Amino acid sequence: MPRRTIDIAFTRAKVAVFLDGCFWHGCPEHATQPKANAEWWRHKLDRNIARDTETNERLTDEGWIVLRFWEHEAPDRVAERVAAAVARQRRVRRPQSEGEQ
Ligand SMILES: [Zn+2]
After folding, report:
1. DSSP annotation of 43
2. Structure pTM?
3. Which range of residues forms the domain containing residue 68?
């Protein structure tokens, strides 16, 4: 089942990472349309995608950087991009978060 929680959260850097399943979240390369109960599935999968968008917007409004990856993406590429985003955010956020250390 798709989750609404952040898969990996770097709370101090405010970077939220989601690893989305190709089927559940409608990957453009691997999404499939089940033939049995097609209507029900289409509705369910559309709702997942709408919820993803809403979650992104909510987090962005709260100052988070949202990174989403598909389950088919190479783990080392994903790790590199996450590390780069966290490092960048830590640099950007340091001036105003000095007091929290
Ligand atoms: Zn995929």
Report:
1. H
2. 0.82
3. 8-100
